[in-house]
Design a protein that fits this description.
By secondary structure, this protein is α/β, with parallel strands linked by helices. It contains 6 helices and 4 strands, in the order H-H-E-H-E-H-H-E-E-H.
């Protein structure tokens, strides 16, 4: 948390210089107050940036995210604000931590693991997965380009039949 706290203070000028908008997904429950304050500062300080979005997963788990969305929707039904028949895919997506962000097209999995590790379980339904035995700290720009080149060769079917 100390590293995150320092990062959220020290990098804000660079984020703004590079037009990077900072966002967060995950539960704030249990995070130190100082970290929450710095998260709020980073959100506010970069909210008008229109370039890339840096979405940091802090205190995040995919199952917890889906559970949170379901509980939020259930509360709306209980409060009489929502009919159960109105619940659809968009409603679930609107209650996820990652709302207002497009789903990932490519999931890069470093470290040799061949599992998604409870990461963005809902959102990666149609993501292409690229794996490498290299651990994240040693991941290079060339490896990123390899992942992108591999992705560009894929036939994206989104659950449908082969387009060829």
């Amino acid at each position: 948390m100390e590293l995150l706290s320092r990062y959220l203070t020290d990098e804000i000028d660079e984020f703004n210089e590079n037009n990077v908008q900072v966002r967060f997904m995950g539960s704030r429950e249990g995070l130190p107050k100082v970290v929450q304050e710095k998260m709020d500062y980073a959100l506010k300080a970069t909210c008008n940036n229109t370039g890339i979005i840096l979405n940091l997963a802090i205190n995040y788990g995919g199952q917890a995210e889906i559970l949170h969305a379901v509980q939020s929707i259930a509360q709306q039904v209980k409060d009489g604000k929502l009919e159960p028949q109105a619940i659809d895919i968009q409603m679930v997506e609107d209650n996820l931590y990652s709302r207002q962000l497009p789903p990932p097209d490519l999931l890069i999995r470093p470290g040799g693991d061949l599992r998604v590790s409870n990461f963005m379980l809902w959102q990666i339904a149609y993501a292409e997965i690229w794996t490498t035995d290299t651990y994240w700290p040693a991941f290079t720009q060339e490896m990123l380009l390899d992942a992108i080149r591999s992705y560009q060769k894929r036939d994206r079917r989104y659950g449908g039949l082969n387009s060829k």
